[in-house]
């Protein structure tokens, strides 16, 4: 059962569950069920670690020294990198508690993060003033995105600004962009700093990260995996499609990020383990009517399509066990019966391909 935030726990109105908010900022994106929330560690801990989520898929771990309990969904004021510099005024950011308790330790272990590297801390639960400033900054993000794209177009910069994220105190704006080559955006930063009256940070991301931030609907009719539940984006190559006997059609295999779809890797391990039982696809069998070559394999039904080299337009379906027996006989210089006799019963014995 999901642990409620403090507002829901006290039967108050919860901003995190407002149904009128957009899908990109709602309570359910990358949501985690804190199933270890009621389990307490038997050891006393001086440092408590909490996972805080920000806009889109950005999450970070913070130290918490106060005795005030934090629940999932609580807005908190956290430390930033710039706040550690004593020469500048203290800055802060606002996020929402995503995980607490023992489940945070499991997440840190899965991401291979050392506890000594965690230095940022949580100041306090966000006050009403800080939440109002945070909400006001979020309302400016879409307008700032359009202005930033206009400035980049006027300066003829070969880059695409895909998202803008304001810090909780509104003193910094992070612009995420994609570009093929290196971009000199010094003039752009000057123009944006004059217009937004805040500090500007440019951060380059990949095309997969861009699709995860923007979101959309895939060819399957569902929301993109990278924008809903997929946390780690792995590389995908064309071998993933070849192992699954898919036609190399770039238009069908690519997603909205113009890269190969991440779902090509979902069943790849199953196909690789099943293909181990099959002989080499380039292997030939020798029958009484001549040599035959493999045209196609069915991994799960464990069947193979063969055709004579002299007549490649007619295919015969043969079970995997028979093919293995034939290859063993061919090694002993024994010729197998014709493909017509080896073809499976109650199945399509041949397929004639005609070309006009």
Could you give the order of strands across the largest sheet? Answer: 2-1-4-3-5
Judged by helices, strands and strand pairing, the structural class is alpha+beta
Rounded to the nearest angstrom, the distance between the terminal CA atoms is 62 Å
Low-confidence stretches: 1-28, 346-350
Number of strands: 12
Biggest sheet layout: 5 strands, antiparallel
Helical fraction: 25-40%
* Helical stretch tally: 12
Q: How would you spell out the order of helices and strands?
A: HEEEEHEHHEEHEHHHHHEEEEHH
Describe the protein in words.
With 356 residues, the protein is α+β, with helices and mostly antiparallel strands. It folds into four domains: 6-127, no CATH class; 140-208, GMP Synthetase, Chain A, domain 3 (2-Layer Sandwich); 234-275, no CATH class; 284-342, no CATH class. Helices cover 27% and strands 20% of the residues. The chain contains twelve helices and twelve strands. The strands form three sheets. A five-stranded antiparallel beta sheet has the order 2-1-4-3-5. Strands 9-10-11-12 form a four-stranded antiparallel beta sheet. α4 runs antiparallel to α5 (186-196). The longest helix is centred in the middle third of the chain and has 14 residues, at 141-154. The chain is elongated, with a radius of gyration of 29 Å. Mean pLDDT is 82; it is low at 1-28 and 346-350.
């Amino acid at each position: 059962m999901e642990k409620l935030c403090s507002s829901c726990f006290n039967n108050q109105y919860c901003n995190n569950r407002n149904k009128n908010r957009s899908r990109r900022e709602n309570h359910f994106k990358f949501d985690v069920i804190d199933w270890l929330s009621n389990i307490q560690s038997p050891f006393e801990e001086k440092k408590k670690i909490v996972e805080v989520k920000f806009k889109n898929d950005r999450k970070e771990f913070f130290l918490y020294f106060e005795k005030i309990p934090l629940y999932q969904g609580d807005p908190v004021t956290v430390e930033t990198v710039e706040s550690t510099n004593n020469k500048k005024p203290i800055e802060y950011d606002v996020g929402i508690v995503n995980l607490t308790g023992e489940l945070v330790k499991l997440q840190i272990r899965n991401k291979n993060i050392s506890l000594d590297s965690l230095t940022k801390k949580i100041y306090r639960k966000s006050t009403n003033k800080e939440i109002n400033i945070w909400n006001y900054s979020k309302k400016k993000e879409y307008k700032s995105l359009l202005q930033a794209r206009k400035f980049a177009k006027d300066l003829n910069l070969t880059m695409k600004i895909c998202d803008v994220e304001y810090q909780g105190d509104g003193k910094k704006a992070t612009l995420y962009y994609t570009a093929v080559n290196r971009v000199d955006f010094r003039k752009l930063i000057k123009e944006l700093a004059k217009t937004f009256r805040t500090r500007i940070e440019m951060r380059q991301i990949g095309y997969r990260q861009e699709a995860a931030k923007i979101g959309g609907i895939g060819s399957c009719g569902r929301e993109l995996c990278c924008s809903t539940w997929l946390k780690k984006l792995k590389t995908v190559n064309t071998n993933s499609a070849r192992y699954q006997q898919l036609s190399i059609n770039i238009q069908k295999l690519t997603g909205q990020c113009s890269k190969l779809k991440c779902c090509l890797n979902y069943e790849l391990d199953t196909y690789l383990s099943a293909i181990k039982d099959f002989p080499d696809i380039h292997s030939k069998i020798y029958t009484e009517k001549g040599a035959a070559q493999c045209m196609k394999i069915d991994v799960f039904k464990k069947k193979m399509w063969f055709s004579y080299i002299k007549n490649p337009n007619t295919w015969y379906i043969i079970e995997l066990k028979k093919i293995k027996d034939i290859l063993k006989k061919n090694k002993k210089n024994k010729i197998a019966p014709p493909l017509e006799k080896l073809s499976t019963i109650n199945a399509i014995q041949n397929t004639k391909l005609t070309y006009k």
